[in-house]
Amino acid sequence: MTANSPADSLVELEDAVAACPPERCARILEGVVNLLTANRDRPQHLLAGVADRVLLRLTERVTAGALIQLSTALAALAVAPPETLRRLAMHDDPDVACPVLHKSQALPTADLVSVAASCGERHQRAIAARECIEPEVTETLIKRGERICLALIKNPGTKFSETAYAALIAGAEPDGEIAKALALRPDTPDLVVRKLLSTSSCMAAPAKPGAVSVPPAQDALPALQKRPCSTDYANARPEIVALNRIGKLGDSTVNRFAIRGEIANLFTALSVLSGAPVEIIEHVMSDDDCEGLVMACRASRLNWATTLAILSNRSSARLSFAQRERAQLMFETLLLSTSQWTVRWGEIAASAGTRDRAAAMGTSR
Known about the structure:
elongated; 21 helices; mainly alpha; about 375 residues
């Protein structure tokens, strides 16, 4: 008896699928998926190739629920049926497409580019949340609008080409969210940040006729260099204490204070979270060396992104790449207990000793 060739068997299986009711097709689909996922010791490329045509035929005859399950299963495979993967990725239903778009490492970059160029917002966000995003995909998504650009910038796995950076700079509004997010991203090249700042300066409102131009060096100090007065602190403290009491004085709130330049709120928040007097917070904020500020942020249980936002917004001199790396290394190696002890007791004791000496001198007079 002559054995059927794999190709003949595949044709017979496809013909059988065409005559099956949807319920039977769903069971066959489940069996094929089990074959792909449960036999890790077999040649995966061979299995994927054999199963591809059958899966394509089955996807035409099963419900959306079955397709979602299929997409979730294939998304986890390092090797998957290529045509089936492509059809799922381009599916109009985001629930079917998103598992593959978000997690599949077997989906080619060219397919991701194609989907990114024509898909809906949920498809875009699934791609923008991938662990690694190649420059070609990034460039395509940037053309889709500001909201997806922000998602790309905030994803550490996004790779930006010179073309992508140029598009972001061209579309970034002065003081807009894209400019801020890109400037705060640790791996953004200094040249790109300088261009962003230059663009912001050029697009600033023109001076009124007869107005005296002031050189940049004589401009008002940046917001985080201006110390709040006692009234500012008195107004800020009740709200900050209340937020802390209900557990809402966290990274997102402190980050917002830093980005918006709400100095009294920021200084008071760091004081409340770290346990240090606000005078100590003022001191570490104005210190050229960022070690004290990093320690205060660490003692406040803030994450690195919030710490970087505070460091980047405290003065006109932007941190260099080397300074950022040094600050991050310091932040990651500092023990929480050490930071809290130093900020709360070491600095307080030093300042208390200074006040005691001053008081003694006043008494002796």
